[in-house]
Design a protein that fits this description.
With about 475 residues, the chain is mainly beta. The chain folds into 4 domains: about 120 residues, Immunoglobulin-like, CATH 2.60.40; about 100 residues, Sandwich (Immunoglobulin-like), CATH 2.60.40.10; about 100 residues, Sandwich (Immunoglobulin-like); about 110 residues, Sandwich (Immunoglobulin-like). It is about 5% helix and about 45% strand. It contains 2 helices and 40 strands. Strands 20, 21, 22, 23, 24, 25, 26, 27, 28 and 29 form a 10-stranded antiparallel beta sheet that branches. Keywords: Signal. GO terms for molecular function: starch binding. This is SusE outer membrane protein domain-containing protein.
């Protein structure tokens, strides 16, 4: 019996030591020196490949003097004549031994942070600092290294239609926004009504320059940077629904008549909502796609209407009556009989209707347990391992947070994946400035190909309310 107790005690001590070691230590790092290097000594940032990796910094672990204590790293970069006080300083966290930058990301950072002139070469210095989790051990700093970086002229992240052919005329303050095309850098698309008249494209709402104008023909763009440059416009001879697609890398444009969605509004109608016409939400990235996310616990039948309150109008329907929930289900549309409908068992659902491919997803929704703030606007910056948690409410779909936001970028992680390939809620457009009112957000699943962030322009106290079912957010400055 005594031997059994001794073995049990030793087993318990081993398990406790293992848990502590795994959670709070990094084992013996030895006595290797702390060093950092870059994948290139000279970098010319590539405007034509904004999402490709430009440079990677790699460092050794340094030493924790055999204590087994954790080491946290801080990456720093500054101009060669600087002292790192006003440069870049990023908390990388534990067990991280590299930092990479994409072409556009680094180009924007150098221009915005250091005021570097576009298309110029500058020598930067960089180093890594290792902080052991002990008051008795001093921080280690690597030898300083240098790198030569050439910036490029930035290509706009936003694009707008302006002209008497467009919905809002020649008002630069109210220019019509185009949406970025998923997985195609610097490509934009817009679908809607154009009138007979002229139009061109501007990079920034409220500013007439720079603009993208008609080039040598109707498929080519040219960048106009001053009032003395030619001001050729594109001409629409016949009003109608058009799709305009632009690629600012190849400087190509296509203007196609008749490709727009048939419907700009749709309504969910069925048992779960008492046969009321409830509006669906148009997808932020694709006007052919509509969403309806709601608690449909009552279950039962539903169809999707094309005209509010009109029972004789065309409805989107399943090909087979009482089609149950599922994904990639076939959709048809007609008025009158047979009055086919989908039939759900009941619960909380996210419904997505694609009117281009005529498919529907009817998926029960399980909320994420926690949502976290990430970005240099947030309290813990870009350290995803220490992302700032929001506060759960009595509603499992609604999270809130109140605190100080810095000027910078912001998005929300749903699962804190260390490799950054998890699920996110992101802004509906690049560099989105919060309005303080209810706004739509995008659920950015792994591989979705977009990464839009909110741009906080004024530091201060903010209150955030995020509804992960309705996919809405309020970011309001106090």
């Amino acid at each position: 019996m005594k031997l059994y107790k001794i073995i049990s005690l030793l087993t318990l001590l081993f398990l406790l030591w293992s848990c502590t070691d795994e959670d709070n230590t990094e084992y013996n790092k030895g006595d290797q020196p702390l060093e950092i290097s870059a994948s290139k000594e000279t970098v010319e940032l590539d405007a034509l490949n904004p999402s490709s990796e430009a440079i990677k910094f790699i460092w050794t672990s340094g030493t924790n003097n055999g204590t087994g204590l954790a080491i946290e790293y801080v990456f720093q970069m500054d101009k060669q004549d600087g002292n790192f006080e006003n440069g870049i300083s990023i908390d990388m966290g534990r067990n991280v031994y590299e930092k990479s930058y994409k072409n556009e990301e680094l180009n924007d950072l150098l221009i915005d942070k250091f005021g570097i002139t576009p298309a110029s070469e500058t020598i930067f210095q960089y180093r890594i600092i290792a902080k052991v989790a002990s008051e008795n051990l001093e921080s280690q700093t690597s030898p300083v290294q240098t790198i030569n970086i050439k910036t490029h002229k930035p290509i706009t992240k936003t694009l707008y239609l302006i002209g008497d052919a467009t919905p809002n005329g020649w008002s630069a303050d109210d220019a019509t926004e185009m949406k970025p095309i998923t997985n195609t850098p610097k490509a934009f698309s817009w679908t809607g009504a154009l009138s007979a008249g002229e139009f061109k494209l501007i990079a920034t709402q409220g500013e007439f320059l720079p603009s993208y104008n008609r080039g040598e023909n109707d498929t080519k763009l040219v960048l106009r940077e001053s009032d003395s440059d030619p001001d050729e416009k594109f001409v629409i001879t016949e009003g109608g629904t058009y799709t305009v697609k632009v690629n600012l890398i190849s400087m190509a444009i296509s203007i196609t008549k008749g490709e727009g969605p048939e419907f700009s509004e749709l309504w969910f109608v069925g048992n779960p909502t008492g046969w009321n016409f409830n509006p669906m939400t148009v997808d932020l990235l694709d006007p052919f796609v509509f969403h309806y996310n709601d608690d449909l616990s009552a279950g039962g039948e539903f169809k999707i209407g094309t005209a509010a309150g009109n029972w004789d109008a065309v409805f989107f329907r399943p090909a087979i009556n009482e089609q149950p929930e599922g994904t990639n289900l076939d959709v048809d549309k007609w008025a009158g009989d047979p009055d086919n409908k989908w039939k759900i068992t009941g619960g909380v659902y996210k419904i997505k209707l694609d009117t281009r491919d005529m498919k529907i997803d009817i998926v029960p929704f399980t909320p994420f347990a926690m949502i976290y703030l990430v970005g240099d606007a947030s309290p813990n910056g870009w350290n995803i391992g220490s992302a700032t948690p929001m506060t759960a409410t009595g509603n499992p779909y609604v999270f809130t947070w109140t605190g100080t936001l810095n000027a910078g970028e912001l998005k929300f992680t749903l699962d804190k994946q260390d490799d950054w390939n998890g699920a996110w809620f992101i802004a509906g457009e690049a560099d989105k400035n919060p309005t303080g009112d209810v706004e739509q957000i995008i659920y950015n699943y792994p591989g979705a190909g977009v990464d839009y962030k909110w741009k906080i322009t004024q530091s201060g106290t903010y209150t955030i309310e995020l509804n992960q079912l309705k996919e809405t957010i309020i970011i309001k400055k106090q």
